[in-house]
Design a protein that fits this description.
The structure holds two protein chains of two kinds. Chain A is an alpha+beta fold. Chain A is built from eleven helices and five strands; from the N terminus they run H-E-H-E-E-E-H-H-E-H-H-H-H-H-H-H. Chain B is of the alpha+beta class. Chain B has ten helices and seven strands. The longest helix of chain B is centred in the middle third of the chain and has 23 residues. The chains are: A alpha+beta, B alpha+beta.
Chain lengths: 253, 261
């Protein structure tokens, strides 16, 4: 892939520097560039994502958050280090949770910087059967799935009200992911966006989960009034005059 | 917090497993302290949950995590080791709830359980976290956020977008509760699931009733929660399948996470 964008070219040059530096480590078998840059969509605000395959046999996946960069490269870097045995297992068995999904997604979006014995190329090719599209959505997907995991765990602990709140949170995060994924990304409310981008059946389900399908004007007003009262109460409790800091005059609520 | 005998046994199991795993770092002079964090340390652990262990390091070689899967490593369950340099932890504490990461760091250590420590490094971190006080700037920013939501609420009311009114009112309730918990009760809500827990644990009856009423969860029982979860699994699964992602990511066998690996 040739980068025509100046920012992307610059970032790629930095990624190459890191990849070359990693050659010094004899345990490394392949270095793969991943994330938006590997997909040709990177901008200066994106991190440099690298997948590193090693010959270690401890079965440990390491995830490094290098916010200050790596050696002379001063751009934020995220580095996932996988023993070859773990990487091979993942491409053979597919994903079942967010760690395995995000790992396979990183392989699938990958571009080999250097490799021994076609190890990187083979992993990228093998990941295609599990992740058909080259998309980098794992980060936003993780929020929705974690919230759903929490809802299930709370339910099992008989914490039903919190389980309902977390199920709603998961649904909102999943719809947020759809909105972000949409190129036109109109500035609309969550409900308008959900109606626009979800199928009618999914939109109905979404309203059901949020328990808002039967909201009339009277109920909405009642809810708004209660929220205003609580916000004002909160501010007074912490020693702040609500009318001084909130734009709530002449509301008629 | 009250625990059933099963929950207490689970807590003891998690603690014993974490203590044994953390002991592997005792000989490493770079590790200053090890903490068990998450629900296993302070709440009701999830039987399918991971072990989350945070280690404070002396050197400043950045933040990194190690994921150990039972299939490949000698661990009883999925285990996550987070390595955080001491200097960074101190910086987060100084920021005092100034951003989501510092809020999460402070709450994790405040509620964590020290597994081992050199000298009293672990206790010192816990002490500093427990005495961390939110700054005025932070409080101002949070009030600003609430005011921003009031502007949206007004617009939605004017346009008679009833559903948006309700969702915005819920957001105002959520942010107001978090502000009250932070300033009055010195408790930062780092994760969504902690919000309701904190509301029920710390707020008085009138406050928590207001919360439940605006959030519309007053009558949420086992059946309603189950239905909400099933509906969410269907919705998220559908959204994922349209993006070529298998819905097995959100598949639960009898509401236990299905694990193929």
């Amino acid at each position: 892939m040739d980068y025509t964008d100046k920012q992307q070219t610059n970032l790629f040059e930095q990624a190459k520097l890191i990849a070359e530096g990693l050659r010094e480590d004899p345990s490394i078998l392949a270095v793969i560039l991943s994330g938006p840059l590997a997909l040709g969509k990177g901008s200066d605000s994106d991190k440099i994502y690298l997948v590193i395959i090693t010959d270690r046999n401890d079965g440990v996946i390491e995830h490094h958050f290098l916010d200050d960069g790596w050696r002379e490269v001063k751009h934020p870097v995220e580095m996932g280090k996988f023993p070859l045995s773990v990487a091979t297992f993942l491409v053979e068995h597919g994903y079942s949770d967010m760690v395995s999904y995000k790992s396979l997604e990183a392989f699938r979006c990958g571009r080999v910087m250097w490799e021994k014995d076609k190890i990187g190329t083979n992993l990228i090719e093998a990941s295609e059967k599990h992740i058909p599209a080259r998309v980098f959505i794992g980060e936003s997907l993780h929020g929705a799935v974690s919230a759903l995991d929490d809802a299930v765990a709370l339910y099992k602990n008989n914490d039903y009200k919190n389980a309902v709140l977390m199920a709603r949170e998961a649904a909102i995060k999943a719809v947020d992911m759809v909105i972000r994924d949409n190129p036109e990304n109109d500035p609309t409310t969550l409900i308008e966006a959900a109606e626009k981008y979800l199928s009618p059946a999914d939109f109905k389900l979404f309203q059901q989960i949020l328990n808002i399908e039967e909201i009339d004007e009277h109920k909405a007003l009642e809810c708004a009034r209660a929220a205003k009262d609580f916000a004002c109460y909160t501010l007074r409790e912490i020693g702040v005059a609500p009318e001084q800091v909130l734009d709530i005059k002449d509301w008629g609520l | 917090m009250q625990y059933t005998p099963e929950q207490e046994l689970l807590r003891q199991t998690f603690l014993a497993e974490a203590t044994e795993l953390a002991a592997g770092f005792k000989e490493n002079p770079d590790i200053l302290a090890a903490f068990l964090t998450g629900s296993a340390a302070w709440g009701k652990p999830n039987p399918d949950g991971d072990l989350d262990i945070l280690l404070i390091t002396k050197n400043n070689c950045g933040v990194f995590y190690r994921y150990l899967l039972p299939k490949f490593a000698q661990v009883p369950r999925r285990t996550e080791f987070g390595f955080l340099p001491l200097a960074l932890v101190q910086e987060k504490i100084e920021r005092a709830y100034g951003d989501a990461i510092s809020c999460s760091t402070i709450e994790q250590f405040k509620n964590g359980r020290v597994l081992f420590q050199r000298e009293d490094q672990g206790d010192r971190v816990v002490h500093a976290c427990r005495h961390s006080v939110p700054g005025r700037l932070l409080i101002g920013r949070k009030i600003n956020d609430i005011n921003g939501l009031f502007k949206k609420l007004r617009q939605a009311l004017e346009e008679k977008q009833n559903q948006t009114v309700v969702l915005t009112a819920r957001r105002i309730m959520s942010l107001s509760s978090r502000l009250l918990l932070l300033v009055r009760d010195r408790l930062g809500v780092a994760k969504e699931k902690q919000e309701y827990r904190a509301v029920t644990k710390i707020f008085g009856k009138t406050e928590s009733t207001s919360y439940e009423s605006i959030m519309n969860i007053g009558d949420s029982d086992s059946e309603k929660a189950y239905q909400a979860i099933l509906d969410t699994i269907t919705l998220v699964g559908g959204i994922l399948s349209k993006r070529g992602v298998s819905n097995r990511i959100v598949r639960y066998n009898g509401l236990h996470r299905q694990t193929a690996n």
